[in-house]
Amino acid sequence: MKLVPTDPPGRSSRKAKRFAQDMRELRAQGYTFEAIRMALAAVGVHVSNATVQREVARATKAASVAQLSGSGVRPDEWSPALTQPQVSASPPSTTAPQSPQVASVETDMRSGKEIAEAFASSRITNPLARARLNAKDSS
User: Which of 88, 29, 16 is nearest to 59 (CA)?
Assistant: First the structure.
């Protein structure tokens, strides 16, 4: 005997889960989350924009993981940069038509504590010391 579930894997209370792949494809075509939410409402699935965003993100992540697993790379070798959504560091051009941009991410290898210490060490927070430095600079 072979069991064949009717619902997709995961929590069955997720209303939009069965439409996740369609939502991902619509988003890739340029539709807004609101337009996708309205399309779901038209077929009787009433969800919020946050739900649409979450399901699209899950479907995108699942697709990238499936692509990586098909490439022969072991899961423990996947870099976080490959499994996380890429964010463009440069603002989009307003004169040219919108096109997919390649993300350029510069990583800072310092820990958060080291970054905070470097920031704090370059700031003078004591108002008396600040006044003294300003007085020296004006002399």
Answer: 16
Contact present, 60 and 85 (Cβ < 8 Å): yes
Average pLDDT across the chain, whole number = 75
Question: In this structure, are residues 87 and 105 in contact, taking their beta carbons and an 8 Å threshold?
Answer: yes
The pair phi, psi for residue 98, each rounded to 5°, is -65, 130
Q: The dihedral of CA 101, 102, 107, 112: what is its sign?
A: positive
Nearest-angstrom CA–CA distance, 48 and 44:
13
User: What is the mean predicted confidence (pLDDT) over 11-19?
Assistant: 75
Distance CA 43, CA 26 (A): 15
CA dist 104 and 100 (Å) reads: 13
- H helices then E strands: how many in the chain? 6, 0
